[in-house]
């Protein structure tokens, strides 16, 4: 509701037309099943898409990371607005930072709540690499439920998306931001998708005013990676495409065309076993894609390299 309200305001601003919010509860909102079981099939998305197809709403707002990678022919992503903070964050007891938490739990082993195989894989891999032990505990529920486990002392910390907390004005709960060098976010994390039916050219054009081409290129590359790995949104896959700032003066390797700096997009990807014992983590760079196909190619190239390193064998856990 919070993120849809923000999009509604933005749409009103660019179109000069009022927007009415229609509340729809999805299976993902009410089910307490583990995401590893129900994820990947659009549990947060399906009910909204049905409402679109029935003509009950004109457009829908999704968290982009919840969208299945296959796009239905009847629907279009009219806009991908500028991305929020893509990082995962820690909400820990005693305002602890991640490194202090895992080094100094009174029980010896920090208990960290997250239902996402991707987060488990990378948290466990980090702990192993530093000779530490942590316990990842599968949890689900809304922000209050998840933070409540820390308040009640049942868990030492929970991991959440920064974007979700920011959008509901709860970023003050964050005790540490997890560097994307340690924990790559889910493909599309922090971005929104504004979707409508394919027939309405006028609406598509109006919503398109909110599109941010750089965010769209980044999430297209991330999702192409996910699709090419044949993984769903609950698989232990992280990906982030960004445009690293060019350092001045220009260094070797920076490309120029007619004196113009061509910015590079970097795509990083990770796949791992949830126990963190094995990770395949690679990155690639190329000129910032200026076509949909170019963005898809960036993701597919990295996926091929990750598959060559054995990525497919690490994703068998997703059905558990
Ligand atoms: N898996 C559910 C979900 N889908 C989008 C967000 C957060 C907002 C975002 O990533 O844009 C969350 C919660 C979370 O991962 O903590």
Automatic annotation (TrEMBL):
It comes from the Bacteria. Its EC number is 2.5.1.61. Residues 218-307 form the Porphobilinogen deaminase C-terminal domain. Coiled coil: none annotated. Its cofactor is dipyrromethane. Signal peptide: none annotated. It catalyses: 4 porphobilinogen + H2O = hydroxymethylbilane + 4 NH4(+). NCBIfam families: hemC. Belongs to the HMBS family. Tetrapolymerization of the monopyrrole PBG into the hydroxymethylbilane pre-uroporphyrinogen in several discrete steps. This is Hydroxymethylbilane synthase. The gene is hemC_1.
């Amino acid at each position: 509701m919070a993120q849809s309200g923000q999009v509604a305001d933005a749409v009103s601003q660019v179109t000069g037309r009022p927007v009415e919010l229609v509340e729809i509860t999805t299976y993902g909102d009410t089910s307490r099943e583990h995401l590893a079981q129900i994820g990947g099939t659009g549990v947060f998305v399906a009910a909204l898409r049905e409402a679109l197809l029935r003509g009950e709403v004109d457009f829908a707002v999704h968290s982009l990371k919840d969208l299945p990678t296959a796009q239905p022919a009847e629907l279009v992503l009219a806009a991908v607005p500028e991305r929020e903070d893509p990082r995962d964050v820690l909400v820990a007891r005693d305002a602890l930072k991640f490194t202090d938490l895992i080094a100094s739990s009174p029980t010896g082993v920090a208990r960290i709540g997250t239902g996402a195989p991707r987060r488990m894989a990378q948290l466990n891999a980090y702990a192993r690499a530093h000779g530490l032990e942590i316990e990842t505990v599968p949890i689900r529920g809304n922000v209050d439920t998840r933070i409540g486990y820390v308040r009640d002392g049942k868990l030492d910390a929970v991991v959440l998306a920064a974007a979700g907390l920011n959008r509901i004005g709860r970023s003050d709960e964050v005790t540490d931001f997890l560097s994307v060098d340690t924990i790559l976010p889910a493909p599309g994390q922090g971005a929104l998708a504004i979707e409508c039916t394919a027939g309405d050219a006028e609406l598509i054009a109006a919503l398109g005013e909110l599109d941010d081409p750089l965010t769209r290129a980044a999430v297209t590359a991330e999702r192409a990676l996910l699709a090419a790995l044949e993984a769903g949104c609950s698989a232990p896959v992280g990906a982030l495409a960004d445009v690293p700032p060019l350092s001045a003066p220009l260094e070797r390797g920076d490309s120029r065309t007619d004196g113009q700096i061509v910015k590079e997009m970097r795509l990083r990807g990770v796949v791992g076993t949830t126990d963190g014992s094995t990770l395949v983590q690679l990155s690639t760079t190329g000129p910032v894609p200026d076509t949909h196909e170019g963005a898809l190619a960036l993701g597919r190239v990295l996926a091929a390299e990750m598959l060559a390193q054995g990525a497919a064998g690490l994703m068998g856990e997703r059905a558990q």
